[in-house]
Structure formats: C-alpha cells, structure tokens
User: Fold this.
Amino acid sequence: MSGSLLSTHGLSAGYGDFQALFGIDVSIDPGEAVALIGANGAGKSTLLKCLTGLLAPTSGTVQLDGESVGGLQPHRLVERGVAMVPEGRRLFAGLTVEENLRVARDHGRRSAVLGPDWTIPRVQELFPVLREKRHALVESLSGGQQQMVAIARALLCNPRLLLCDELSLGLAPRVIAEIYEALPTIAAQGMALVLVEQDVALAQRSTQHVYCLLEGRVTLSAPSAQVSREDITRAFFGADHAVA
Assistant:
C-alpha cells in the first residue's frame, strides 16, 4: 500500500455504543476507480464519513499520501484534495445553478498537479445542461440535473480523490448513463474515484477494483473484472449463502 493515495488500516468506527466498522483495510491508488458495494447498513456511508472527516475513527488509521489524517475536519481534507458527492446532493436549493457553482469555485483548492483546474466552463462542457440552466433555481431542476450540479460542485474543489455516494439512486436509466459516461473524462487526468453504488454490474463496469462490506467488515477485495456473480452473492450475504 506504499504507493496509495488514500488508505485505511484497521479502521473501526461507530456511533456511541454502536460499532459500525470493524478493522477496515482499503487502498486507493492515484487515478484508480474503486467501487464500494454492499447491502443497506453494511457500513459504506460510515466509511465515507471517516474518509471525509465527518466521523472520527475509534481505532485504526486513515492515511492520505502516507500521512495520518483520521479525525481532521472536513474542510482540511478538502484543502488536501478530498471531495465528496453526498447522497441527497445537499445543494443550496434556493440559489441558481451558477450561484451554487460559484460557491464551490470560490472555496475550492487550486492545483496544477493533475492538469488544468476544473472551472465553471469546464464543468459546463462536461454537463451542457448546467450552462442551459445556469440561471435556474436548483430546486426547479430534475433529480438528474441536481446530481450533475452536485458532481460539478465537487469537481470545482479540484480534488485528487472524489468520493461519490449513490450517484444513480432514484434516477432514470438515461440520466444514469449520461452521468456515468462522464466519469472517464473526470478520471482522465489522474483523479481517483470511489463509487458507492447499488447497481453492482454498473459499479464493476466503471471501476478497476471492488470492495464489498457486510456488517461493517470487508468481505471482498478484488479487481472488478475478475469478480463473478457468485463472488458478489457470497460477499453480500455471507459465505454460506446459496447461489441461485
């Protein structure tokens, strides 16, 4: 794991007396796309919270470029190049599309390490509807359009690592396809991606490595192209679950 952009070692976390993660080891290399799958309640969102500083680990480490960052405040991790597209988007609904993007632009980091900075014109090129709807209130947009705003907002932070929580949740297949077609462009300049995704087949097609969580533990870690349906079923439900 010495060349990892971000890694966890023996990471455990929880909420009060409830332990949600048990000894998690994951590794994300620069430019790598990683899928994080598992049933509801498996610990995926808790892991993302630990990676973004929203939840402090109870034990273990989170390392960015080999430096321990577990427990750092979220804005400090953004400054170091970690950004998130959260489930539910969490946009400023009463602001226009362009105003939402300007907020992110004005508070984003600047880095030439991965190539040209993400700018408002660049994200509008990636998602042309953002230019068409730039004066529209975010609350008036469709769910898919709001998701594009959320992705663009994260990109304007110019991250090295982009964490995406349930990009496809509740969206029409056509919109999902449009969003996922943009991911190779996003990753082309070396940005690492972590995709939490309910659609396992989509997650496998879109990533190089897959991790599966079950009850707060890693039950599968393998190259995406080598994972079979049987592997997924056992990882989701436990080794003794019968494969139909």
User: Anything to note?
Assistant: The beta strands are 6-15, 18-28, 33-37, 59-64, 67-68, 82-85, 161-165, 192-196, 209-214, 217-223. DSSP finds nine helices and ten strands in the chain. The chain has one domain: 6-237. The longest strand covers residues 18-28.
